[in-house]
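Dear colleagues,

For the upcoming journal club I promised to circulate an example of a predicted protein-ligand complex. I picked one with acetoacetyl-coenzyme A because it came up in last month's discussion. The inputs are reproduced below in full, followed by the predicted structure.
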Amino acid sequence: MSNHKFIRVWEENGIGRIELNRTKVLNAINRPMVTEIITALEQFDRDHDVSAIVINGGGRAFAAGADIDEMAGDTPVSLELLNQFAEWDRIQGIKKPIIAAVHGFALGGGFELVLSCDVVFAAEDAKFGFPEVKLGVMPGAGGTVKLTKAMGKAKALEWLWTGDSMDAAVAERHGLITRLVAPEVLLEEALAFAARLVQQAPLSLRLIKDTVNKAIDYSVYEGMQAERKNFYLLFASRDQKEGMKAFIEKRPPEFRGE
Ligand code: CAA
């Protein structure tokens, strides 16, 4: 169990668990909480016993956005000097799979946290949206960029300009969600998926994530060059030798992440 103030952090069966834990304010993400989340992710990323990470929200929501009380008095200069959004960039540096398990509200910064994850399991009651426009601001931690890349300009602007929340089924239709599940089995399903990843070759997972992330921004040609390099690189691993030897010997492989 962790000694964090705004999240709970623990490890179980090769899965790193992070639960947002400011339930009285629907897990509104204040600045220390951002630091705690990113530090926990980086620690799991370095922990050889962890193969995948699952993030969920405690209480009745995933997260209802950045903490409005904390932000209300900010000025451009205070924001520039603090530059805390730079911390969000560090999530992109996490090499291991990050799975979001989302129920209830995932708004503003909460939605941005979801969009920073690799795979999203959502309960049927989940609601996603960017209500920043109603506060006289706009998303600041990647929301406009990631939503537009996911659903295109025309649809992204509709959600960003209205600030409306979309139901989980709509989010799924837009390709934002990996799997839609009943609320009562959300964590079970997300953890079962994570458990499958724990069985896979860790270096393969890592380089697949790296290559897929590059595919988002690269041309097909550039993406294929990156893919090829990572494919070749895996042949330096002990797990490639083990995986192919196990296939030939008709037995399950024993991957070690080396
Ligand atoms: N910041 C601070 N406190 C918040 C919060 C937030 N983002 N969201 C909810 N809370 C607090 C509420 O103030 C309330 O506190 P009190 O009990 O002390 O009054 C508590 O959480 C419960 O919320 P509600 O009573 O409002 O619950 P509800 O079920 O009636 O409504 C809600 C839920 C629709 C999510 C509503 O709370 C809401 O609109 N929240 C704000 C959502 C929002 O605007 N998010 C964007 C923030 S800006 C951002 O995220 C910028 C960025 O890009 C990083």
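Two points we might discuss: The pocket of acetoacetyl-coenzyme A is lined by residues 25-26, 28, 64-69, 105, 107-109, 112, 131-132, 135, 139-141, 143 (CB under 6 Å). The domain at 7-199 is CATH 3.90.226.10 (2-enoyl-CoA Hydratase; Chain A, domain 1).

See you all on Thursday,
B. R.
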